[in-house]
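Changelog entry

Holo records now carry the ligand SMILES as an explicit input line rather than a separate metadata file. Below, a converted record for zinc ion, shown in the new format.
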Amino acid sequence: MNHFPHTRMRRLRQTKHLRDMFNMPFPAPEKFIWPTFVVSGSGIKEEISAMPGQYIFSPDMLVAEMNALISSGISSVLLFGIPNEGKKNKTGSSALLKDDSVYKAISLLRTSYPELTIFTDVCMCAYTNHGHCGILDESGHLDNDASIKQLAEIAIHHAKAGATGVAPSAMADGQVLGIRKKLDEHGFINTLIMSYSTKFASSFYGPFREVEQSSPGGGNRVAYQQSMADSKQALRESLLDEVEGADILMVKPALSYLDIIVKIRQKTNLPLATYNVSGEYSMLHATAEKGWGNLYEMASETLLAMNRAGADILISYWANQYGKLIKDNH
Ligand SMILES: [Zn+2]
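Structure line, unchanged by the conversion:
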């Protein structure tokens, strides 16, 4: 009896109420984290040409922006620092200064919005003059263990300023363990670690690297970021970070890796985030500009897919336009 003409799938879809009853809900605003960029100075709000609707802010202007975001229900940000060109050096040491844009932004946001959930990207690629995600040894290769020490110092710096959580993104082996130990030693036992646990060497980071000016000067990142063609290793990366003490795992990027989200979701009970990266955001804008699709319907469709795959948390540039996303499927 379980087939046509007794079974008719359209029966289930005939009214909006029925469709709404069976549909999973669109992710609530609390599930979103808005990634954004901060630069030193004041009075700066500069639109990023490759990412319409996204800006580079000075700390004061970011604070001014938060009211609109919070009233739309978004309660979390992920901050990326952009140091002035003259401040970049071999070790990325300007990330540890009190006049670093991230340090200042955290302090100001924490004062103005005590309840805001503030995550910070913990990496060195924007701060080093060679553009790699860590410290290089004499032969020009990434020194994994020396880099961990510096990443842990950056994490402490952000925690001191008032960050709720730090998000190490360098794909250094042992970085979560190193940062957890250092945070605990300094009494920051409640500072979360949201690890970029499975971060792929992807072609979808282009618009972001233009903003951060963080493309490696020589070589690339395939020696430390995850290969897109090895899903077993992609799983191991996240599961190792769980053992090291991560509080939240992450898959980055999102759209080309929905299968990895599904698999990690099945292997862990930790919260799982996915990072809907700049190239994924910009390609929808480019499609919409050509008149080939409705911007917010396409955005909603991709975000729902990430959620359906098993991501609990959506790190997405769409977060600051949450009100425009389609919340019901007609
Ligand atoms: Zn990096």
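Spot-checked after migration. The mean pLDDT is 95. The two ends are 30 Å apart (CA to CA).
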